[in-house]
Amino acid sequence: MSTSAPGARAKLNRPVDEEDHSSGPENALVTLVEYGDFQCPYCGAAHLILQEVQETMGDRLRFVFRHFPLTQIHPFAEPAAEAAESAGAQGKFWEMHDLLFENQDLLNERNLPAFAEQLGLDTERFARDLQNNTYHERVRQDFSSGVRSDVNGTPAFFINGFRYDGSWELGPLLAALQEAADNNE
Amino acid sequence: MSDSNDRKETAASPLQAGTQAPDFTLPAGPDEKLSLSDLRGRPVILVFYPADWSPVCGDELALYNEILPEFERFNAQLLGVSVDGVWCHRAYHKDRNLHFPLLADFEPKGEVARRYGVYRESDGTTERALFVIDADGKIAWSYVSPIDVNPGADGILNALEGLSNKEDSYVNERAGSKGQTQSTGR
């Protein structure tokens, strides 16, 4: 009855679809899905590594970010996730995603609107979205799909649909992605 | 994984599904004790983990803490167990804002973990092990994760779903047989 027999790698429960925020070609050799939390320092560290990874892999990689806010230990993780969604609705998800990670020590009620302004968003609409928790459900959907995919902490990575349990330092992560690309070539 | 052989040597053999879960009474705080049998009538998720204060924020217990509402949909009680003492547990519990009890398998050390087959002699800690126990105190599912890999929650949720389906079909069966009795009575 167990789907998680020892040795079996956890599988991505919800395939990447058009609801997802993705960067890179749809038909890339490798799809890397991250479940992340904007207030998690490990995700912040991984963010810098992922930028290098994306640069190195180029068109061979599609990167997808899904929300996994740990709200009990990170009080601004949920508002930050909703802020990214609100920016996404105005076409600037990745810009906000980057800004949030680069300023993750500054996440608070005052700074989120300042980030929106910095990105040239419609700040009234942004404020309304946060006030009304417009994207709460959207963030929950990501979270639930993570739970059912056996996300086991943040950041959690899935390479071509399987959880990657190795180190996400640049070297090992790149090696794993390149191997996945070679297998698909 | 280069250490998989080492792991095999030290891996205990966890109690399997279908076994009656050994009852225990452990401190849940400085002046508080909790017995497994107190929780009869609802599913219990027993989470053995190696130690408090593991140096990652998205760790196993933080994850389960976050998912607690999903477990509560099944009326399940989550219990964390490690060989750490009550004061250590208390500080950790507070720091991580946990909303479920941490039990101290501290004296005699690892006694409960041994009874569940998940004590690691070589380290003096427990395995990363999960047990889902049904309302009658029987183990419905168990799983031991590699010590350096946090298990996720999907296996637990599958097991809880299995239990609630069983309950539903039991209720349906009874409803069905009642219907039959009525029709034969006619």
At a glance:
Chain A has 185 residues and is of the alpha+beta class. Chain A has helices at residues 41-57, 77-89, 93-102, 111-118, 123-131, 136-148, 170-184, and strands spanning 21-23, 30-36, 61-67, 156-159, 162-164. Chain B has five helices and nine strands.
3D architecture notes:
In chain A, 46% of the residues lie in helices and 13% in strands. Chain A has a single domain, classed as Glutaredoxin. The N terminus of chain A is likely disordered. Chain A starts with 20 loop residues before the first strand and ends with a helix. A 5-stranded mixed sheet of chain A has the order 1-3-2-4-5. By secondary structure, chain A is an alpha+beta fold. Chain B is an alpha/beta fold. Chain B has 5 helices and 9 strands; from the N terminus they run αβββαβαβαββββα. In chain B, the strands form 3 sheets. Chain B has a 5-stranded mixed sheet. In chain B, strands 1-2 form a two-stranded antiparallel ribbon. In chain B, strands 6-7 form a two-stranded antiparallel sheet. The N terminus and C terminus of chain B are likely disordered. The interface between A and B is medium-sized, with 28 and 32 residues.
Name the features:
heterodimer; A: alpha+beta; five-stranded mixed β-sheet; 5 strands; globular; B: 186 residues; two-stranded antiparallel ribbon; 5 helices; 36% helix; disordered N terminus
SSE layout and pairing:
The complex is a heterodimer of chains A (185) and B (186).
Chain A: E1 21-23, E2 30-36, H1 41-57, E3 61-67, H2 77-89, H3 93-102, H4 111-118, H5 123-131, H6 136-148, E4 156-159, E5 162-164, H7 170-184
Parallel strand pairs in A: 2-3
Antiparallel strand pairs in A: 1-3, 2-4, 4-5
Helix pairs in contact in A: 1-7, 2-3, 2-5
Chain B: H1 4-10, E1 25-29, E2 32-35, E3 44-48, H2 60-72, E4 77-82, H3 86-95, E5 102-104, H4 111-115, E6 119-120, E7 125-126, E8 128-133, E9 139-145, H5 154-185
Parallel strand pairs in B: 3-4, 4-5
Antiparallel strand pairs in B: 1-2, 3-8, 6-7, 8-9
